[in-house]
From TrEMBL:
The keyword Cell cycle applies. The gene is ftsE. It comes from Stutzerimonas zhaodongensis. GO terms for cellular component: plasma membrane. Part of the ABC transporter FtsEX involved in cellular division. Important for assembly or stability of the septal ring. This is Cell division ATP-binding protein FtsE. Keywords: ATP-binding, Cell cycle, Cell division, Cell membrane, Membrane, Nucleotide-binding.
Length: 223
């Protein structure tokens, strides 16, 4: 599903984001990308979202060459991807339902379809009973789960998360990782960038380790 072939990313200011990175990800995999701050984790995710272009090498996502993708193709690419950020970026003047419905409203689906898909997504993160509440009524962990529901509501083949547990205590962080595992079990490919090695080491998944833009490890996360 994902093929990085000698992918390099140099920023205009001369900083190197990634250096000749090569790895493959199969459809349905669950993997972590880890490394210290500045290692290139967010750069890797931004390349997959075509928010940035590689400056060398070749990057394929579901057969599409992201090093050559046209701006007109980017919205279609992003329909295949869901994204979860550290700061969930919810709209606090809208209900949980409306927050999760946002990507579907942008796609222009009809009300009935939106209703069904949103309730399915909220069920997947165990928040069906909170649909009509506002984000401010929810705990931090529940808010992050709304962010995950919104990221999967359009049924993306690939779910990306950038430090999704960065603001959570260890117990909530583990719970959120469990939600990602549930989503992966239903077939979605999941790629999580995180520097929280203590948390990752308690799970059994593939882990890519970056150091200053280079891949220095590709193995199992559990110690
Ligand atoms: N927009 C940018 N402009 C210039 N340099 C950047 C930019 N984004 C990231 N970098 C540089 O790329 C490297 C990797 O950063 P990043 O991908 O954000 O790492 P991480 O997410 O692992 O902390 C760092 O040296 C950083 O300074
Ligand atoms: Mg980052």
């Amino acid at each position: 599903m994902i093929r990085f072939e000698q992918v390099g990313k140099r920023y205009p200011n001369g900083h190197t984001g990634l250096h000749e990175l090569s790895f493959h990800v199969q459809r349905g995999e669950f993997l972590f990308v880890t490394g210290h701050s500045g290692a290139g984790k967010s750069t890797l995710l931004r390349l997959l979202l075509a928010m940035e272009r590689p400056t060398s090498g070749k990057l394929l996502l579901a057969g599409q060459d992201l090093s050559r993708i046209s701006n007109a193709q980017i919205p279609f690419l992003r329909r295949q991807i869901g994204v979860v950020f550290q700061n969930h970026q919810l709209l606090f003047d809208r209900t949980v339902f409306d927050n999760a419905a946002l990507p579907l409203q942008i796609l222009g689906l009809n009300k009935r379809e939106i209703g069904q898909r949103v309730m399915t997504a909220l069920e997947r993160v165990s928040l069906k009973d909170k649909a009509l509440q506002y984000p401010s009524d929810l705990s931090t962990g529940q808010q992050q789960r709304v962010g995950i529901a919104r990221a999967v509501v359009h049924r993306p083949a690939l779910l990306l998360a950038d430090e999704p547990t960065g603001n959570l205590d260890p117990r909530l962080a583990a719970e959120i990782m469990g939600v990602f595992e549930d989503i992966n079990r239903l077939g979605t490919t999941v790629l999580i960038a995180s520097h929280d090695l203590a948390l990752i080491a308690r799970m059994r998944h593939r882990m890519l380790t970056l150091q200053r833009g280079r891949l220095i490890g590709d193995g199992e996360s559990a110690r």
